[in-house]
Amino acid sequence: MNYRHSFHAGNFADLVKHALVLWLLKDRQARGPVTVLDTHAGAGLYDLSGDAQRSREAEAGVARLMTAEARPPLIEALAAEVAALNPEGGVRFYPGSPVLTARALRAEDSYRGFELNPPVEALLTEALAAWPNATGRAGDGYEEAVRAARGVKAPLVLIDPPFERPDDYVRSAETAAAVVRADPTACVAIWTPLKDLETFDGFIRRLEQAGLSRVLVAEARLRPLNNPMKMNGCAMTVVNAPSGAEAAAAEICGWTVQALGDAGARAEVWRAG
Q: What is the reported pTM?
């Protein structure tokens, strides 16, 4: 699966990922200064009139979010961020995790996003120019996040690869384990697509075999997992999940499947291990 960020920007999976990232960041900020490390940052900000218009996934995601009524608080928080980037109305611009995070940083917080693709890294740097404590850097995010985690205290680490390489599931699990070995107080949030249970179960087994604890799995299944050629849902797996994360994930995934899912859609939030 090649999950190119610009092509899928603003889809249902982005809503799940970014609403939970916002909550995790706010929770972390309540405990002190926060360093956010983002392994696959992407361009940072997306113009939905570009690649995303061809996929039309934003129409079934963020566009419906912004017209929905009775949004629960954690979904409303994401909608407010989207609205702030579109002051003239509509939904042309959608924030990736770099811009979303940068907008929420305090003076004592910082963000480091890593990107391997040089043209995309240049876009990332441009998108973050307004925030001096948010930086985009060239590099292999798996390696860079582990290296950076050794030099900061209690980071929030986002692992969100495009799944264009056959080893992305393996490297995601290995990176999460290495980050927690470097700093047992780190919180690691890993986004994965849900196409079939066999692949996802293998990923969870790797986390369990690494001895990771307090692993929360939040699934939003928009359709039954019976067609491995389609992204039928997505999951956010949080290592060292803080208190309250289960309720937050249930609110976010529950709204997503109810508002955007097909018949048979369901949300599942559970503990691994």
A: 0.95
